[in-house]
Amino acid sequence: MTRLIVALALLVTSALATAEVYSYVDKEGNRVFTDRPTAGNAKAVDIKPGNVLPTPTVPQTAPPSPPAQVRRVFYTSLNIDSPAPEATVRGGGDVTVTVSSEPAILPGHAYRVLLDGSPAGQPNAVASIALTNIDRGTHQLAVEIINQAGEVMLQSKAQPLFVHRTSLSQKRRIHPCQKDDYGVRPECPLADKPPEPRKRILGVF
Q1: Does some domain include residue 159?
Q2: Rounded CA gap, 141 and 152, in Å?
Q3: Average pLDDT over residues 116-136
Q4: Which residue range is the domain that position 139 belongs to?
């Protein structure tokens, strides 16, 4: 029986190529399938075509795009051009800090001045930042470059800055207080205003 099944499978496979299959009974009474009608009693076998399934189409997917290259900027230098190290500022404590960097400041970045390690003034893309009303004494001045997220890209070395402010007494000596200055000028407080001279009333005799 096994022999018959194997023979049938082989003939069916061959039939797909030749489309002609014959069957007959041999002398021993066995059913034989062949593609050659050699026997006298061989008859053609009508084999119905089998179901043919189409080959599934594999969708073509585009290769993944390489990740976008993020350009990271590296500043090679950052300097304070003005004031010079150990410069002395006199007057009301106002100073303009001028800086330069290599490369020049890029869009979205800004210069920020540090006074004694703390931000002073407003970050600005312009290389000239004004500081006002700095207290008298010795300070450490530095500058840094920040990006849009506030991250520090580069910071310069700190340098000393001396601020000499004119005291109120010095201002009074330079510009003495007049009667109408008391309570108006900071160096002329109302408490220091001298008393008005008393008017003498002369009796009538």
Answers
A1: yes
A2: 16
A3: 91
A4: 77-165
